[in-house]
Sequence to fold (125 residues):
Amino acid sequence: MKKREANFNSLFNKWVKNVYRKTAAFELKQTTTDSLPFSALQEHQAQALLQARWETFVFKIPDAGYQNPFDCFSLSGVPAYIVIKYPDFFCLIDIETFLLESKRSKRRSLTSERAKELSTTVVDM
Fold:
């Protein structure tokens, strides 16, 4: 699982750098099926995304014995997305849209079909 996550993280980072090219906050999730449980997004992750979107989110990068690019960063009023990697595509869903869907849905998970409907961006793989 860790290797698969690392592969998607690398792919997504390249996509952001070369295609998206804007400031935003992202929480990456991955599933090998056609649905992702809404519970995969933890409360602290949702709160951090909302804070980056509507307030100012500040994060001190931990000193972990390797060379960090810098010590700290802040994000204020930026787009905030949950990024879901399904088997054939990944998509960006606004955090507020995702949270609203999780409250309104009769399901406990977000299907790939519904994710495409809610997404601001879909990238086929």
